[in-house]
Amino acid sequence: MNDQAQASANNRAVTVAVLLGASLMLTMSMGMRQSFGLFVRPITADVGVSVADFTFALAVQNIVWGLTQPLTGAIADRFGCRAVTISGSFLFAAGLAVTMIATGPIALLIGMGLMIGLAMSCVSLSLALAASAKVVSPAKRSLTLGTVSALGSIGAFIAAPLAQHLLVAYGWKAAIVGFLGLCVIMLPGAFFIGAGDKIAPRQQIGSTDAGLSLKGALAEAARHRGYITMAVAFFVCGLQLVFLTTHLPAYLALCGQSPALSATALAVIGGFNAIGCYLLGWLGGRLPKQHLLGGVYILRSLIIIAYFMSWPTPASTVIFSAAMGLLWLGTAPLVSGLIGHIFGLRYMATLSGVAFFSHQLGSFVGAWGGGLLFDAMGSYDLAWKIGVAIGLMAGIGQMFMDARPTARMAAAPAPA
Q1: Which of 43, 75, 76, 402 has the fewest Cβ atoms within 10 Å of its own Cβ atom?
Q2: Residue 75 lies in a domain
Q3: Helices 259-284, 331-343: crossing angle, 10 deg rounding
């Protein structure tokens, strides 16, 4: 085998390792994170904390995740993903262990909030998609990001039924132990995602960004009105999704539905999310990504109206979950694709992290704000109406986003 053929084979092997590692890591981390709402009622009853206490811990988890995502992204851009993702896997497990021994709101805040929040910034979408984007060609990027998100989206289809079975059969601490087992499975993915650390930096730096500094990249982003619009709309994305994953189980219980329906709903969301991520990734290579994003936010809001306006039944909940699943995390490959299109790949993890901070501010509001409104009013009526209103506004604003590349990127030669 000549040198060129050997290099090509090595690059293919690296690409496969990165994509499979990213998918496995996302499957475990996002699956567990999306299933934490199942623990609201059993933990609050056993530990003696309020719904607002528990949802505040989840809100802190999301805000810590958002606050630290730009930092972990910058570290990964500078030193590679592997050390960050492996550290995050161990930290996730440690946060679960602290949660399992919690006897009050402080320990719950530390374990479920601070530790898992920091861990998620190391093992979730931003780093996984940034690493994946760097090992494929621009022509394949949107579909690849959608595919990785899709494979990573089946986690709720695994984690939610596992947690529900263990909750019913053995209690919530046994369910946490089950999640610790998923952390063990997550470790190989966290290792293999770093396979591209050595070759990706050489491939991603072109003539237009070879001298670009991190400060320069952040200044570029701050001046780009389209990036600001996208980040603000991403706030609403986080609010809607985390409100549902956190409060849908409690809402269904309030309406007299079986706890098993909550696990079914989360699992259906995970299954249809895989389809939606792939579909939106494919469409993102053919249609304007900003228009697709705006359409997702608007459709989500309309579906929420249709569901919450009537009394939930098992059939309506499964249909609602399937429809929302199609529109769930498909926003992530579209946002990542837009960032790569506008700014290039050199600081993609960092810029994705900054946008994701806005997403997590929305997650904070969706988790804790929903709990506060429920404790104050005894229902979720006002919470879902607020989510719908700002979702419609975000969707319209996203539709008119300026998606033009920066002058630096516009001057770059077309890819071969």
Answers
A1: 402
A2: yes
A3: 30
Read off the amino acid at residue 182.
L
Instruction: Name the DSSP letter for residue 311.
Output: -
Instruction: Confirm whether 3 is domain-assigned.
Output: no
CATH number at residue 46: 1.20.1250.20
Burial of 386 (0-12, 13-18, 19+ CB in 10 A): middle
Alpha helix (H) ranges present in 113-171?
A: 116-123, 125-133, 138-152, 155-170
Give the model confidence (pLDDT) of 222-245 as tens digits: 999 999 999 999 999 989 988 888
What is this structure's pTM? Answer: 0.76
How far is the C-alpha of 35 from the C-alpha of 370, rounded, in Å?
17
264 within a domain of the structure (yes/no)? yes
Residue 130 lies in a domain: yes
Exposure string over 285-311, b if 16+ CB within 10 A, otherwise e: beeebbbbbbbbbbbbbebbeebbeee
How crowded is the C-beta side of 170, counted as CA atoms within 13 Å? Answer: 10
Q: How far is the CA of 287 from the CAs of 94, 147, 295, 338, in angstroms?
A: 42, 17, 12, 12
Separation CA 75–CA 83 (nearest Å): 9
Domain containing residue 27: 15-196+212-410
